[in-house]
Design a protein that fits this description.
Blueprint lengths: L9 H26 L3 H31 L10 H28 L12 H28 L3
């Protein structure tokens, strides 16, 4: 346990790491609900994860990225500290926006019919894979920031 949580990471970073991993498991559980044809449980699970992630972005990830990474860009983009966080941030923004679009397009009547997705299973699968890529880059960012840091 001591190897996972670094003293320099702080409570917010450690809490965010645990929450992000739990949300990844939650997305897999949601996918299993869909496979079992429990579509209401699937929708609630996936939408809850998307909304929880918005909260984590607003209160943990965006302030950290804005304060620690953005001032150094683009000059230090090739440094692993800034590069890992930037890759994670870009992929994470894409995953969150795509996920929110899927939730709105499939789960509500908010999106006009002509803008809705037609192959929603494909897009949901793409989103799940993308989300796990983002989780992996997030763990990599955590490692670079706190395990490699002096």
């Amino acid at each position: 346990m001591n190897e996972l949580f670094r003293a320099g990471a702080g409570l917010k970073a450690n809490f965010n790491l645990v929450v992000q991993l739990a949300m990844g498991v939650g997305l897999i559980a949601g996918a299993l609900f869909a496979r079992a044809k429990h579509y209401t449980a699937h929708g609630i699970c996936q939408a809850a994860v998307m909304l929880l992630n918005l909260i984590m972005i607003a209160f943990v990830m965006w302030p950290s990225f804005y304060g620690r990474v953005m001032p150094a860009l683009p000059k230090h983009l090739t440094d692993s500290y800034y590069g890992a966080a930037t890759a994670h941030g870009i992929l994470g923004a894409i995953a969150e926006l795509l996920g929110l679009y899927i939730v709105l397009a499939v789960g509500t009547n908010t999106v006009p019919y002509r803008l809705r997705i037609s192959r929603w299973k494909l897009w949901m699968r793409i989103e799940l894979v993308l989300w796990w890529v983002v989780i992996v880059t997030g763990v990599l960012t955590y490692y670079v920031w706190y395990a490699e840091a002096p």
